[in-house]
Amino acid sequence: MWFILSLVAIVFWGGSDLFSKMGSNPQDKYSHWKIVSAVGLIMGIHATVELILGTEFHPIDFLKYSPAIVCYVASMILGYVGLRYIMLSVSSPICNSSGAVACLLCLIFLRQMPDLLSWAGIVLVCFGVICLAFIEKKYDTESAALAESPENKHFKSGFIAVFFPIFYCLLDGLGTFADAILLDMEYVSEDSANIAYEYTFFVMGVLAFLYVFVLKHEKLSFKWDAPKLAGGCCETAGQFAYIYALGDNPTVAAPMISAYCVFSVLLSRIILKEKLSFKHYMIIFIVFLGIICMGISEGLAE
Q1: Are 43 and 198 in contact (CB under 8 A)?
Q2: pLDDT tens string 67-85
Q3: Residue 36 · residue 74 · CB < 8 Å
Q4: Cα–Cα distance measured from residue 28 to residue 220, given in angstroms and rounded to the nearest whole number
Q5: In the predicted structure, residue 111 carries a pLDDT above the cut 50
Q6: What DSSP assignment string belongs to the chain?
Q7: What is the CA radius of gyration of the chain?
Q8: Does pTM surpass 0.70?
Q9: Gap between the Cα atoms of 87 and 85, Å rounded
Q10: How far apart are CA 59 and CA 215, in angstroms?
Q11: d(CA 42, CA 57)
């Protein structure tokens, strides 16, 4: 059963990346807040269903899990902002490199020495991200002409654009590090932590909706907003499958699911027709390899 659930998580999280990118209108400066609103709605519904089904939860869990919540929510918002500026096939591998950040934090603050496979993954991921940032730097010059007009202002710098997923990676890694402390010490249960996170994102979604559609008087658009809702459904479904896949067979499921960004890149290439240079492919492959190394290491540790 774990194998099927792992495939479900990979497909849905890849779909979440795809639909979020499809719903990111480069001309819409409120696009990321609209995605937050859609994802928050779906997460709120899911958290409510979990409570109805009897999952134990206490309001104090919001406070207990707040360090991780702040990091995760902020990282996702930055990730959605970045989708307006950068290709999904570049953004997804960077975002999914957060495991290297979490591993380094555990090493520095918890004195948890990673094994050789984890070190290899960390080096590959960091090397790939740095090289990718330098490759994107060339778009500074190539897009200068486009940046002259106000409507193309978002093309101003490929080098700056790549830092949105990098910020996502750092914050998500910090959130994972907070999980390592809060959950491993049983300060809060996994079910309660997930509900606290989803309801917090729901609140953010409501605030984003009021800001965009009430205060700024934006209009709903089926072309751009329908993919956002689909992305929210995929994000929530992927998380649900992920939890049960790990519960059934964490040793093999963890490394398998950790490379879901490979599926995101394939979807971006097939459906979004994103074109990458040979250098892009080589560096993304290096990042993939690093992620897989860390995933296998984590699975063996279990």
Answers
A1: yes
A2: 989 998 999 999 899 888 8
A3: no
A4: 12
A5: yes
A6: -HHHHHHHHHHHHHHHHHHHHHT--TT-TTHHHHHHHHHHHHHHHHHHHHHHTT----THHHHHTHHHHHHHHHHHHHHHHHTTTS-HHHHHHHHTTHHHHHHHHHHHHH-----HHHHHHHHHHHHHHHHHHHHHHTHHHHTHHHHTSGGGGGGS-HHHHTHHHHHHHHHHHHHHHHHHHHTTTTSS-HHHHHHHHHHHHHHHHHHHHIIIIIIS-PPP-HHHHHHHHHHHHHHHHHHHHHHHHHHH-HHHHHHHHHTTHHHHHHHHHHTS-----HHHHHHHHHHHHHHHHHHHHHHHH-
A7: 19
A8: yes
A9: 7
A10: 30
A11: 19
27-to-85, 182, 200, 219, 237 alpha-carbon distances in Å? 10, 40, 28, 14, 29
pLDDT tens-digit readout, 139-194: 544 544 444 444 444 444 455 667 888 888 899 889 878 877 887 777 888 888 88
Q: What is the pLDDT of residues 13-69, one digit of tens each?
A: 889 999 999 988 888 889 999 999 999 999 999 999 999 999 989 999 999 999 989
132/203 Cα distance (integer angstroms): 35
Query: For the chain, how many residues are written?
Result: 302
pLDDT at residue 51, rounded to an integer: 95
In whole angstroms, give the CA distance from residue 258 to residue 118.
13
Residue 210 has pLDDT above 90, yes or no: yes
Residue 167: closest CA among 79, 43, 255: 79
Residue 146, pLDDT score: 44
Written as six digits, the tokens of 5 are: 């659930």
